[in-house]
Amino acid sequence: MTELNPREQPGRVDIPIVWVEVEDTEILFANQFLVQFNQQEILLTIGQITPPVILGPLEQQVQQAERLSYIPVKTVGRFGLTRDRLEELIGVLQTTARNFDARDGGAP
After folding, report:
1. Suppose 12 and one of 5, 41, 71, 92 were both cysteines; which one would form an S-S bond, judging by CB atoms 3.0 to 4.6 Å apart?
2. How far does Cα 7 stand from its chain's mean position?
3. Which pTM does this prediction carry?
4. Which residues contact 15 (CB under 8 A, 6 or more apart)?
5. Over the stretch 25-34, which tens digit does the pLDDT of each residue have?
6. Half-sphere exposure for 97 (CA within 13 Å, toward CB)
C-alpha cells in the first residue's frame, strides 16, 4: 500500500492507495526496452520480440535468415515517467532483484 501524503504535510489528509483487480490484468512477457527523453519526462517503451522460426539444414537456415529484412518488436506498453518516478521505479526494481536473488538462498 502507498500513501498519498508520505511526508505528512500539514493540512493534507492521508488516503491509502490500494491496487485493485491486479489479478484480472493479463501478464505480458517483455524482453525489449526502449527509453527516450521528451522535455521533463522519460518515455519507457516495453516490447516483446519473438525469434523467427528458421528450420532445416544449416544452409537452408542461413538462406532463410538472409531473407529477413528485420525482426519485429511488438509493443507491450508505453509509459511516461517524471525523473522522481524513474528513481522510484529503479528502487523498486533493485529491491525486487535483491529479494529474487535472496529467495531460497539464491537457488534458481
Report:
1. 5
2. 28
3. 0.73
4. 3, 4, 5
5. 999 999 999 9
6. 6
